[in-house]
Design a protein that fits this description.
Blueprint lengths: L2 H11 L23 E5 L2 E4 L4 E4 L3 H4 L8 H12 L10 H12 L5 E5 L2 H16 L3 E4 L7 H4 L29 E3 L5 H10 L2 E6 L11 H12 L2 E5 L12 H4 L6 E4 L10 E5 L1 H4 L16 H15 L2 H23 L3 E4 L5 E5 L4 H14 L2 E2 L3 E2 L7 H24 L2 H4 L14
Parallel strand pairs: 3-13, 5-6, 5-7, 7-8, 8-9
Antiparallel strand pairs: 1-2, 2-3, 4-10, 9-10, 11-12, 12-14
Helix pairs in contact: 3-11, 4-11, 7-8, 12-14, 13-14
The site of pyridoxal-5'-phosphate has 14 residues, from helix 5.
Amino acid sequence: MNNQQLYERARQLIPGGTQLLSKRPEMFAPDVWPAYYREAKGCEIVDLDGRRFVDMSTNCVGACLLGYANEHVDRAVQQRVQSGSMCTLNSPDEVELAELLTELHPWADMVRYARAGGEALSIAVRIARAATRRDQIAFCGYHGWSDWYLAANLSGEVLGAHLLSGLDPAGVPRGLEGTVFPFQYGDLDALREIVRNNTPAAIVMEPFRQRYPEPGFLEGVRQLADESGTVLVIDEVSSGWKFHCGGAHMKLGIEPDMAVFAKTISNGYPMSAVIGRSQVMDAAQTSFISSTYWTDGIGPAAAIATIRQMQQIDVPAHLESTGARAMKKWTELGQQYDVPAQAASLPAMSALKFDHPQQLMMHTLFTSRMLDHGYLAGSGFFPTLAHTEQHVDGFIDAAGEVFTEIRDAIVNDDLESRLKTPVRQTGFQRLT
Ligand SMILES: Cc1ncc(COP(=O)(O)O)c(C=O)c1O
């Protein structure tokens, strides 16, 4: 079976086709985006049909900052696999990683582990609720698939304003309605209002997502948490290690009560960590938080190797300069070809967009044509250590050729007829 046939079969066997919304071909260019890969190394991918691509998309939603199949991390994993990755006893790497994380974060005393971001956030929320003996949660931003979070949409769609639209809370108990309170990043007054009228166990938020905070915002959040006895949980699942070795909150000089890491912490191997102050983390012992696969040896081995690499190499500086180069050239290219190309967000997690009423069609056409040039390209570029200036420049050269066609399509108003595929989707929707 080729790529498209296999994905067609997957959609019959696997509801939604994939386990991660962001890996659905429908999110890029339906019917042409390669769903499956055979090999991935650095920033290059060979798909199931043997075609080779440079990955100029979000690079597995930012999970592999050192690039795919990083040799240092893979060596550590191979050693662990050869010595047995799982048995009746615990992996000593769990303790070494806890030492490493608490050394990097002097404000934190204790650590718990899971294997994915969403479940680690659920653990953090459970611990915060156990520590405070309160139920409610104030939050902004995206925090995964769990009940506590999706409950925000029980009384109407509010999560669309927090990264992902269309999230249906089907299956989330109605009884959770009114337990979570959203506020917009930067809106301290809204958070103040939530804290004044309720008694949240935790404030859960990313340190930032698309922009750095205004001076005083995070300090204000910290103060509100202190005054109200609320646990401040910083979600570093996406931002962690991209902006600063140890997490973005360190760059911003904020000390939370808990921080959550996943994805970037282990360069693609399943691993996540909840770190925190002992006053809060101790409550984990009063609740039942336990899972067999949270004890596997591969995750901690990968995380230690990844963090040690990131302590030696200034990964955030590389991501910043590579991402900024792409953003600058993308905008310049737009001006050169008279295409409404816009670069937004921060260089390590940039959005390369089109500001046009038919932007979804434009993106679909762009992505389809870039595949022919040997690039995986969506509407965001998350660079990795494996991306060089040459990768960025090659991508921009190829994008220039596609921009020529996009310009013609705008002038002739025939974008739709150029598309040989359905238009890509955004947000969550059921696949038929
Ligand atoms: C900020 C944030 N929190 C939580 C998650 C959920 O992590 P996971 O997909 O590993 O469950 C994500 C995933 O993108 C994220 O960006």
